[in-house]
Design goal:
Strand content: 15-25%
Number of strands: 7
Structural class: alpha+beta
Low-confidence stretches: none
Order of helices and strands: HEHEHEEEEE
Distance between the termini: 36 Å
Strand order of the largest sheet: 6-5-7
Bound molecules: zinc ion
CATH superfamily of the largest domain: P-loop containing nucleotide triphosphate hydrolases
Oligomer: single chain
Length: 136
């Protein structure tokens, strides 16, 4: 569901191979959200789908909380026919935010924090580069 309330049916998947197995053969468009969490196998799945004439729309974070490339995103960005980079609003200054600030107990998470935290107590805020903090 989008922030403005539009809805579309979705199927949760836990791996790129599961995604490949669940795509109906008559689907014209495949849209995948949170693609940064996929394994590297997503690259071949996406290439095969595009080669077979399907329209593939991917959405995901290009950078992790450290500001480093997130999972398979660098490769997906490189092979995409078109890329649209969106920004959020920095929670500190109101400027364009391109970074994700991870906060644990309200404080910036250190660089050594795991890339993916499952059911953790962390939260995230959109930040501009000037207000993005990653302690060593
Ligand atoms: Zn800012």
């Amino acid at each position: 569901m989008s922030h403005d309330g539009r809805r579309m049916e979705a199927i949760p998947v836990s791996s790129s191979s599961e995604l490949r197995d669940l795509i109906p053969s008559d689907a014209d468009v495949i849209a995948v959200d949170e693609v940064q969490f996929f394994d590297q196998g997503i690259v071949d799945v996406v290439k095969d789908l595009a080669k077979s004439g399907k329209t593939v729309l991917l959405a995901g974070l290009d950078k992790d909380f450290r500001g480093d490339p997130f999972g398979p995103m660098p490769y997906l960005l490189a092979i995409a026919d078109d890329v649209v980079k969106l920004t959020a609003v920095c929670t500190v200054c109101g400027g364009p935010a391109t970074m994700s600030q991870r906060l644990i107990d309200g404080k910036p998470a250190p660089k050594t924090s795991p890339t993916i935290l499952v059911a953790g107590k962390e939260s995230y805020e959109p930040r501009c580069r000037a207000h993005h903090i990653v302690p060593d």
